[in-house]
Structures are given as structure tokens and as C-alpha cells.
């Protein structure tokens, strides 16, 4: 259960102000059909994070515990730095257009936007840290939904009220603490 709660919290915070959250806003403004957009976000996130979680689980079979400990610790610290760099929305497939419909466009755009994104990398790291693949994928997917679904429904009103810089600083601090714990905590941690 810890893997689920930590994964949900980390991804929810990491997603604030992220390009996929901006993509949610763009899709909501463009199509004005929230349910197919939210369902598309869910399907794309579940598929993307299931793959990322599988990679994270696989990594634990390839790397020894000490190497894994250093890779995870340094990766979490790198994520802390990455959280301090603001995202902007590039053309991540939103030009797919109505040919695919609202749902199809959302699935394609979100799946592509998540490739190599902070939350995908976080999913890989969390799956490597915890031996709980399903809990991690469920948590990271819920975190994405908690961050993105309200944007689809509330749009500009929500984005204007959320102090994104503060959320990024808190997220960076959490990733830094997780990295330091992975590097310097006694062997009794989940990394042991």
C-alpha cells in the first residue's frame, strides 16, 4: 500500500504544471467534450505507465542491489532538479485532429507526450524501488488522473489558482529527500 500512496502523491505533484497538464487544457478548450478526453487520458496513462513499470521491474533483475541503490538515488535527485525546470507545451501530437475523434486524439497525444516525461521516468524509478508493480502503476495512473481530470473540467479557473512554482518546489524537495534516503538510508529500506 505504501507503493500506491507514494506513487500517487509523487505523480500528482510532479504533474502540476507539466506539459501533459497543459495538453489537458488545450484538448478541453479545443474539443469541449470532457468525458472522452478524461477516458483518453486514463487509457494512455495506463498503457504508458504499465510499460514504464515493467521497465522498472526489469531493471531490478539486471542490476545488483548496490548499483540499483545508486542509480535510484541519483535518479531521484535528478528528478528534483528536473522539477525546477518549467515545462512548456510543444506539438506532442495534438495535431492528430478530429480524424481520430476526441478519444483517439487524446490517447495518441497523451501517450506520446508521456514518453520520456517526468512522470514516466518517476514510474520507472518507483517500480524499481518497490516490489509492487501493480500498486505503482495504479498509483501513478491515479496521480495523473488527479492532476489532469480537474483541468479538463475546470480549465483556466483551476490553473490560475494553483501556485505552480510552490508545487514544483515541494515536488523537488520530495524527490531530493527520496534520493538522499535511497543513497544514505540503512539497508532496511525498500531498496535493500
Automatic annotation (TrEMBL):
Keywords, ordered alphabetically: Membrane, Transmembrane, Transmembrane helix
Q: Which GO terms describe its cellular component?
A: membrane
Report the transmembrane regions from the record. Answer: 37-61, 67-85, 97-113, 133-154, 166-185
Q: List the coiled-coil residues.
A: none
Quote the subcellular location field of this record: Membrane
Principal subcellular localization: membrane
Is the keyword Membrane in the record? yes
Instruction: List the Pfam families.
Output: GDT1 (PF01169)
| Gene Ontology terms, MF aspect | metal ion transmembrane transporter activity
Q: Which InterPro entries match?
A: GDT1-like
The protein's topology relative to the membrane is:
Multi-pass membrane protein
What's this protein's family per the entry? Answer: Belongs to the GDT1 family.
What name is this protein filed under? GDT1 family protein
Species name: Alicycliphilus denitrificans (strain DSM 14773 / CIP 107495 / K601)
What lineage, starting at the top, does this entry show?
Answer: Bacteria, Pseudomonadati, Pseudomonadota, Betaproteobacteria, Burkholderiales
